[in-house]
Amino acid sequence: MTIELRGINKKYENKVVLDNITLTLREKFSTILGESGCGKTTLLKILAGLVTPDNGEIMLNKNKLFSKSEKVNLRPNQRNLAMVFQDFALWPHMTVFDNVAYSLKGNKEEKAAKVMDALRMVQLEEFAQRRPSELSGGQQQRVSLARALAPRPKVILFDEALSALDAVLREKMQTDIVQLISQTDSQAVFVTHDQHEAMSMSDQIIVMEKGRVSQIGTPKEIYEEPANHYVANFIGKINLLEKDVLIRPEFVHASKGDSKHLHRIFRVLRSQFTGNCYIIHGEVDGNPWLFYSETPFVPGEQCDVYFEEQQLIKIGGY
Ligand SMILES: Nc1ncnc2c1ncn2[C@@H]1O[C@H](COP(=O)(O)OP(=O)(O)O)[C@@H](O)[C@H]1O
Ligand SMILES: [Mg+2]
Description:
Layout (H helix, E strand, L loop, with lengths): L2 E10 L2 E11 L3 E5 L6 H9 L6 E6 L2 E5 L4 E2 L7 E5 L10 H6 L6 H14 L15 H13 L5 E5 L7 H16 L4 E6 L2 H7 L2 E6 L2 E6 L1 H6 L4 H6 L4 E4 L2 E3 L14 E12 L4 E7 L2 E7 L8 E6 L5 E2 L4
Parallel strand pairs: 3-9, 3-10, 7-8, 8-9
Antiparallel strand pairs: 1-2, 1-4, 4-5, 5-6, 10-11, 12-13, 13-18, 14-15, 14-17, 15-16
Helix pairs in contact: 3-4
Bound molecules: adenosine-5'-diphosphate and magnesium ion.
């Protein structure tokens, strides 16, 4: 399946929210990653048909969902997409069963089979007759997931769908969602501001900054070859060596191994205990640096830190 956005623009009261977005989403699981306010929800709503862009075209395979020039604008229910929201968006007065059945087509038996199928996928078939208020947050989110899965849409859009869940449940749901999607014929477009979530779930990440696409790539490409300083900073921690040359903290060590040729003098400011290691915060040539260590360092202490040439990230150097 291919979702194509071409030249999508959106302004609200003269404020540019999306600036000429051109994107092709082909992977099973794509994630749009960016800070709050960068336009992620607006982009997802434009895909879903809930917001109309000022310009551009949207294609799903060979179907035109939107074209400004050709005056095409399919309604949300004609687009073969489903959406999962952060706040679940369930009807409080309806049972789980009726919430999932709500937008399904077909006769009563067909609908019931689709509902129970979807509830089975999210392991909630015993909860069909409950109301949302009688479920935990995680269960409510699984109901909204079942509601999205039930019509077997071509694409499922997730808008910060796990942000309301606590950390442990959230990690479990990240794994569950990727697995569920892999069992369906649907493609996922997932929106988040959380880089760890994006990294751990996605085949492809689209990094957005202020209404524009900064970089598209696999999690590994984006981490190892960030297109600019914004992406490098946003996806993990960095130490600045010189203009446009960076090193990730995991490649910096206080001991000189066999192959570590480069070194700098590191002035320790603080050792932060995290459970499995210490993060040593400090300074190199006036830039804030950090690295990981099994033992703490004393504030004020100076030490040599070592790293390898081949681990350097050169912005714009690829
Ligand atoms: N209906 C609207 N009217 C006016 N401004 C809006 C509207 N929706 C979103 N915006 C603005 O567009 C920008 C992007 O919003 P949004 O797409 O919600 O970002 P994100 O989901 O990345 O946090 C924000 O500055 C927001 O205030
Ligand atoms: Mg949003």
